[in-house]
Automatic annotation (TrEMBL):
SMART domains: DnaJ (SM00271). PROSITE patterns: DNAJ_2. This is DnaJ domain-containing protein. Residues 4-69 form the J domain. The keyword Chaperone applies. It comes from the Bacteria. Keywords: Chaperone.
Length: 299
């Protein structure tokens, strides 16, 4: 026969339902079989506090117990008309399981890998190992063309991570079974690798598009010409229109970054650039031009 449920939970008979619930939470976390493997004393104590909470954690059954209508096992007591029968009360602790209608058991048992053993009659099955998370910085070129990069975890393990073509900044790659091992023979957790796109020395990302400054010479700006333009996949030739000023933007379709499965464009902003030490011919040309064809920029 079960003992006094109030004493089992360490609360007074005048305790509120919230106080009873808090007391059970505290004891359940301390005594759960998965936290005390092989400890028969803790296992038996866990069964008793579970049965106690099933009784007085339910306001209706608690009231019946307090009035003496049911005993600590949830069985009905003798009444004036005779013996009502020794049977488990509604929702009683039958077969080692309880109907905890007024408490979130996931809060208590989730930390042990599931609800197994709630009634203390069974043992939890093999628990899956925990997932591990890490961040891997990749280059713009890696995100576009794909690559294999190695990552090292804090425990010293290394993994080769295959970066798919068209990977996005912030994308997470799941490596099945590469997380923490199970502590009791279950499957290992997963490794979740978040991809972080590093800064590029030439290109600036704007969504799926890339922007860059493209220095051009004065003759190319005035007369037009063909110049080489760097892209993530190597240099290509671009035609500069005659009469191009600094700030003019030329677009290379489909040569940008990747975002949401879409390949953007490369936008080249022209920067007319003088040599660091202008030679005599350039100086003379500029003097003649200024004298013969004065103009006001922007006019």
């Amino acid at each position: 026969m079960a003992g006094d449920p109030y004493k089992e939970l360490g609360v007074s008979r005048s305790a509120s339902q919230d106080e009873i619930k808090k007391a059970f939470r505290k004891l359940a976390k301390e005594l759960h079989p998965d936290k005390n493997p092989g400890n028969t004393v803790a296992d038996e104590r866990f069964k008793r506090i579970t049965a106690a909470f099933d009784l007085i954690g339910d306001p209706e059954k608690r009231a019946k117990y307090d009035r003496g209508e049911i005993d600590a096992d949830g069985r009905e007591q003798f009444r004036g008309g005779g013996f009502a029968g020794a049977r488990g009360g509604p929702g009683g602790f039958q077969g080692g399981r309880a109907a905890f209608d007024n408490i979130d058991l996931d809060e208590i048992f989730g930390m042990f890998g599931g609800a197994a053993g709630r009634g203390g009659a069974g043992r939890a099955g093999p628990m899956r190992g925990q997932d591990v998370r890490a961040t891997l910085e990749i280059s713009l070129e890696d995100s576009i063309a794909g690559a294999t990069r190695r990552i090292q975890f804090s425990d010293g393990r290394t993994l080769d991570v295959v970066i798919p073509k068209g990977a996005n900044d912030g994308q997470t790659i799941r490596l099945r079974g590469q997380g923490s091992p199970s502590r009791n023979g279950g499957e290992a957790g997963d490794a979740l690798i978040e991809l972080k796109l590093g800064a590029h020395p030439v290109f600036t990302r704007d969504g799926a598009d890339l922007t860059m400054d493209l220095p051009i010479s004065v003759p190319d700006a005035v007369l037009g010409g063909k110049v080489q333009v760097p892209t993530p996949e190597g240099a290509v030739v671009m035609t500069i229109p005659a009469g191009s000023n600094s700030g003019k933007v030329l677009r290379l379709k489909g040569r940008g970054a990747v975002a949401d499965g879409r390949r953007g464009d490369l936008k080249a902003r022209l920067v007319v650039t003088l040599p660091e030490s202008p030679d005599e011919a350039l100086v003379k040309f500029a003097e003649t031009w200024r004298a013969q064809r004065p103009y006001k920029p922007g006019g």
